[in-house]
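Quick entry between incubations.
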Amino acid sequence: MSKNSSPIVALSDMTDGQDADLFALCVSREQLTTRDGKPYFKVAFRDAAREVSFPIWADSPHADACRDEWKPGEFYKIRAIYRDTNYGPQLDIRKIRPVAEADREDGFDPAMCLPSTRFDPEEMFAEMVGFAKDKIGDGALSDLVVDLLEINRAELLTMPAAKVNHHAFAGGLLEHTLSVVRTSDYLADKYDAYYPDLRPRLSKDLVIAGAILHDIGKLRELEQQPQGADYTAPGHLIGHILQGRDMVREAAVGRDLSADTLLRLEHIIVSHQRLPEWGSPKPPMTPEALLVHYADDMDAKYHMMAAVLRDGTSTGPITSQRNPLHQRLYRGEVDE
Amino acid sequence: MSKNSSPIVALSDMTDGQDADLFALCVSREQLTTRDGKPYFKVAFRDAAREVSFPIWADSPHADACRDEWKPGEFYKIRAIYRDTNYGPQLDIRKIRPVAEADREDGFDPAMCLPSTRFDPEEMFAEMVGFAKDKIGDGALSDLVVDLLEINRAELLTMPAAKVNHHAFAGGLLEHTLSVVRTSDYLADKYDAYYPDLRPRLSKDLVIAGAILHDIGKLRELEQQPQGADYTAPGHLIGHILQGRDMVREAAVGRDLSADTLLRLEHIIVSHQRLPEWGSPKPPMTPEALLVHYADDMDAKYHMMAAVLRDGTSTGPITSQRNPLHQRLYRGEVDE
Amino acid sequence: MSKNSSPIVALSDMTDGQDADLFALCVSREQLTTRDGKPYFKVAFRDAAREVSFPIWADSPHADACRDEWKPGEFYKIRAIYRDTNYGPQLDIRKIRPVAEADREDGFDPAMCLPSTRFDPEEMFAEMVGFAKDKIGDGALSDLVVDLLEINRAELLTMPAAKVNHHAFAGGLLEHTLSVVRTSDYLADKYDAYYPDLRPRLSKDLVIAGAILHDIGKLRELEQQPQGADYTAPGHLIGHILQGRDMVREAAVGRDLSADTLLRLEHIIVSHQRLPEWGSPKPPMTPEALLVHYADDMDAKYHMMAAVLRDGTSTGPITSQRNPLHQRLYRGEVDE
Amino acid sequence: MSKNSSPIVALSDMTDGQDADLFALCVSREQLTTRDGKPYFKVAFRDAAREVSFPIWADSPHADACRDEWKPGEFYKIRAIYRDTNYGPQLDIRKIRPVAEADREDGFDPAMCLPSTRFDPEEMFAEMVGFAKDKIGDGALSDLVVDLLEINRAELLTMPAAKVNHHAFAGGLLEHTLSVVRTSDYLADKYDAYYPDLRPRLSKDLVIAGAILHDIGKLRELEQQPQGADYTAPGHLIGHILQGRDMVREAAVGRDLSADTLLRLEHIIVSHQRLPEWGSPKPPMTPEALLVHYADDMDAKYHMMAAVLRDGTSTGPITSQRNPLHQRLYRGEVDE
Amino acid sequence: MSKNSSPIVALSDMTDGQDADLFALCVSREQLTTRDGKPYFKVAFRDAAREVSFPIWADSPHADACRDEWKPGEFYKIRAIYRDTNYGPQLDIRKIRPVAEADREDGFDPAMCLPSTRFDPEEMFAEMVGFAKDKIGDGALSDLVVDLLEINRAELLTMPAAKVNHHAFAGGLLEHTLSVVRTSDYLADKYDAYYPDLRPRLSKDLVIAGAILHDIGKLRELEQQPQGADYTAPGHLIGHILQGRDMVREAAVGRDLSADTLLRLEHIIVSHQRLPEWGSPKPPMTPEALLVHYADDMDAKYHMMAAVLRDGTSTGPITSQRNPLHQRLYRGEVDE
Amino acid sequence: MSKNSSPIVALSDMTDGQDADLFALCVSREQLTTRDGKPYFKVAFRDAAREVSFPIWADSPHADACRDEWKPGEFYKIRAIYRDTNYGPQLDIRKIRPVAEADREDGFDPAMCLPSTRFDPEEMFAEMVGFAKDKIGDGALSDLVVDLLEINRAELLTMPAAKVNHHAFAGGLLEHTLSVVRTSDYLADKYDAYYPDLRPRLSKDLVIAGAILHDIGKLRELEQQPQGADYTAPGHLIGHILQGRDMVREAAVGRDLSADTLLRLEHIIVSHQRLPEWGSPKPPMTPEALLVHYADDMDAKYHMMAAVLRDGTSTGPITSQRNPLHQRLYRGEVDE
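Done. Structure below.
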């Protein structure tokens, strides 16, 4: 740590009035004018757990730098006094400069500015590979799934499951997918035992493979940027359902996978959102596709509901309906 | 067994050309006329696993009895030759009379003429009571659920889950409900572990109680008749969702149950079909209601899909769309 | 009246520049900041016919009291100059304190701050009871309806028909219900005369009872607060259609009411909004239910239309579509 | 009456086994073949209250005449034995010939073969004209309505309100329209008294005129044929809502009617079915249009419901849903 | 030009800092207040290709004139300095007065302040008349179309096709209609050649006449005002589809046009938007109506898409979905 | 031709009573029973322009062969008397045997039994290749399209465009596609000229390529069988929109095609049905995709309409609504 510096703390750990050095990501910079015509910039900085937003006025010593140099998506080292005001958390900036390579020695890490999964990505990835290796009996299918995971390992460790809505944080895709796999594992065992006379039998192999790969196309639909995930052009024009099927078809070339198995696996991906208006051109037409659809739909909806109840700012027993579920939820009386 | 009789066999065990005595339920008797004006009756008899349907012509020795005496919903002892014709299974009736009390000595049991669950109703009922006793920590709530089960024990052991569509056989309501309870038990544990910081915590008590009682109103919506379940007048005018909530409210009177717990339990029942057009005036607004909805919806749909694939008469890899799911299913090539 | 006071006037009677004492309800207090960062409070006060909304700046002599003491839902005695500005009606507050018990001597009455029905609630209530007594021939049914009215007399005299949308003022539920009863009375006579051969005959008893009770569940769905009605938790989770049926069922216990009559009455309540997406799990399946549905729907829609045409602020022959009907209305040229 | 004839009776008065002369309308003649290839004709005859349908076999003495001469839409004098069989009412034809002019002396009247309104068309017409004269204060508007009625008097006395669905019998349009006018009369008085401060006031003139003319376009949409009403080509391509407005606009030429009054009247006609998918390009945008819509909609739906309950062939407390309302109705237990 | 004046330039040609005289249309004047209570007016002026919007503060020398005299819809001669600021284009007004008659000598023309079609209205009109004369073989039909065009010539030369959405500029109705006619001309030839055995043959006459007249009712639905088109009262209450048919029916009186031809022409107009919810009470039921529908729908949608891609302010390869098509569009990378 | 034979004629050329030899395809053979229990087979044979359907009774000399040997999908040489009866065209079979290789000498050709396009497939194919070569300037794109056409030449010459609905005959896919290409060619030129300032310019290359390939996936979705086209398993589970995109992506591997061009081409295929419920997961987001969508939609709908008007069996000016468009059409009075 360079001498003379204030202590370096996390933005989200700062308390009212604290004067400190911190690393933060610039997430927005808008040029606005007050209703009476006075120009200013509204800027926002954040780390993984706190976002602050405040004005930079024309007469601020940082006005020129703000206009000409600050860029959303870049990281800054800031010396500032944090204030917890009635108008939300604010920074009174005293010094600011872009992060330099040397700052890593002082603890800077881009990941510290992104909200991310509560779970360990490496452990989740390992568990997912374990499912693919241990619970898919068909060797060719198991290999295909394992290879797809390994090839995309780096992105899977950090990709969100969505731009907004659900699991929109680093590692969110992995967290959501693993949860779907676990539920699918339970359901496959349960329903195979309930209907042992189904012909053909329910394929546990396909349920597990489909659960692992149902959202794999998000790796092509989205791209990660410092501020979070955003849609790629192919993501807009084609969509993750078709792109995920592409990844499976490309990976299947040259493998000893039966045509029927590949077709059924593609169908799970194609149909996993069930309704055309949700993006699936075909509804689930096999028992395996039906189970993966339910495991996925339930996990996304439950996550949204939990997030609204946990993070929502509205108080009182009933929430507003301005949330991803577009309906009110009941929290009841909570004593804390 | 009275002497001189043919051996008594089950209708569903008869083979082409076999001449035997059997017990069967008359399930329909329609007065029709051929396109060229010749009157006849079309009658149908069945036991639990086979239904036969054939004409009784005006010149049949049974014509008068058919017109004047045979009644759908009554049981008959029949001596007949069974024929497996190109036009489906038929009976060439030689003698027929209503079942008499004494026939029970020869093995007659009304239940032998009804399709019924593959599982043991008593065991399922016991498991359900076990859930209510062991997995609902709130004593007042556990007692309410157990009492509702015990009071309706007799009907629960035999009631179908629906008139048509899914689990439409004796014990079907119990089979379906137990399956929903098991899935709900898994999901409650899983999602409580995933979101331990939810306030209030997910209530396993409510999930289990809601799962057990979600369809309890079918005991008032439907009534059992020899031919199967049919809607009661209140079932038509009010519906099982409201009627099930009535049963819970009536049972709650005088118990030491908190108002909030009762309200949340009622809400699970009211919202379990999620959409207004499916009968739920409110969508799931609590995590508990969301889980019970998914466990229920998935079990009904999976059962329909399995039944189509298992029983459907269409051959080839793709089924027709004339089934309760109103869509085609993929069976693929099945070698048997 | 205490000496030295200004004259006490109604807020809604004040004229531009008038300096007077008044009683008013605080209906909102929001902490805001101007776009350039200056904090202030925006407060609103009202009596039955006028609402004023204005800022309290940090340098106001009332700033501390506003922040620490003023509360929405409480009544205040205010000395102020009223100004009718281009920015809406405003109060220049000189003195302000919470209403005290003694103020009632000076004419304070909480009801003076609530918009309310144009009709006399006692007269309306008496007319409604008269319908129940005179036009319901079945004694048990007549008694049930009269008792339900009498038991809920206090709340019925003041409850709005809704939080927003239609008849959202004190006594609005009574005003709306009485209008529905009158129309239903006309329609029952008319259509019974048109179709005298209906079997069973149209039941005037049920039409009147159903009309009186169709919205009775709003007494449980809503609760009155100084600022108006708001939903209760059971109102959100269950809804007035089910709650109204509960009230009827609870009131019916121990009465000599035929099961069929009770069922038909419950059905009128359950089906009165006709469509699932409007809250009715069942559509009207009896002539009585159909008539009550139309009388109700028409009264609500006509009230909305009249309110938009009468109160809407838009000028010109065509209104905007931002109103509870979500469509434009035609006012035409009005010369006044 | 010519000598030697059997007594002439109404088809709908005949009893089982009765041999008589009757007049009947041939309503259909289809050339069919039994499933095993035997050709025959199925013919139907009716009078106002009974329809009989039976086969004419190739070996019938009437086979040639049936094939070559009998025509749907023509009237016949028939000597036949009526039989009330299990296969419905039938005629055993002994003689048959087209009705001749001289048969009118024996009581033949084409109207006797058409179902028709229970009310006296002349009285209904007179009442309608009375409404137009007495309850429309604006002289020009009153004249327009009266003239439109008088010009179309002959057709109005006999036109059905629809090809199928509701009031599909002679005079049905008049019966339905008069009922709508009466309800509209009541509603206009009621709601004008409720909202006397509406600006402009509710126009009773427009409500009455709109109610009388709302369906006037059916005179162009439909044309009467002996078997009932059928759509004209303009009826199919344009529809009665636009055609009714045409009739009003054509009749308004040269009258001293204000442009705003004419516009509001046209709008009532254009919007009276409320929804685009029911044929109205615009929703009711005036209070007058709203009232006429409700009076009309309610009368049509009530008529359908009454017809199903009265005439429906299904027995038991609940009807089937194969009726114009596409839903089940509750009849309950009816003892007769 | 009067001496001493600055040069007169077009507002849309001014550059940053330029001081000049200009003519402009006042398009809005709103009385607002800053969040902290300071009153001001926000005014907007425009010519055909640029709109400027800026505040007039209470202390401005123009404050009184702004409040008392400036009116949206009137034209002004302004001396001002144009500034291209970060807050959009602004005018620093030095002098302003309403346009006077004499200003026409200096080049003032109201049309200079309206966006208008890129094409020459006279040429387009002539081409349209040419279509009507040359490509409609039926003389009576050709005359009717030509007469309708000539009678409405003045309005057609300037009317927009809509208030917003598509072709919302002077001459837009003509531009859109001519494009529809050209496409219809191509399609009629093509499909008549493809299906020469259609009976009756596809009528080129009707396709051309229908294409020319499909939107003619907009001349009654809309009225031109200086700021653009707005709906008339009949436009709101009846709509251009019915009004266009009126114009054709009125013009057809006394002509030697066959009833079937007129009916088919009316039907093209009535059905050209295809869906009830888009305003067409009937769908296209003839080949001619189908072709005109497609030619129209495609032209409107293509124009919207082109306008979004050309004028939309969003940058980057994907547009936002806030546009008349309510969906995102793909622009891709454009290098300019 | 072998001696002693009857003359060989086409089934569709036979006249009532004619006795001849013919070649025909067996298209169905159903085992039925008359309502009174008599078993028989209903068989159908056809050539390209006529289908005959008739019973084979148990006592027919062909009964055994019919049951044991005749197979739908196989061709037969038949000696029979053709009868044009009231019950449709029938064959009185005298001799029948499967077609043998030698029959080709007598003129047998399987194609003679299939309805097929009125146009010459080779000419259409050549014109399509011409479009791909001459109107696609981008060499890599032109090559890709030409290669895809050439590789699939054999199937394209004969594939129908659908199993039912539109262009469901041999060569129908080619006929439909060529028509779409021609219209797209016109529209691309027209709209590029209308909006020359679009950035990027409308790509004629992409419009032509997209039009040619929009339905190419039908080659994988459908498979040809003697009786017509039927869905493959991948067709059911994945669908032609995704499969067509696969074909393009597979063909693009290793070519020098820009990523943006390929993406835009894929998007045209993906979006060409516009709505999710019609199978397109994304709506047209580029001008090129919009034009191809309209050219395609219009051609399919026009073909359906022409087919109903030309082939429909209903007479009179209005058709029934039992046709692929699910609506009535207007034919008017046709004199022939």
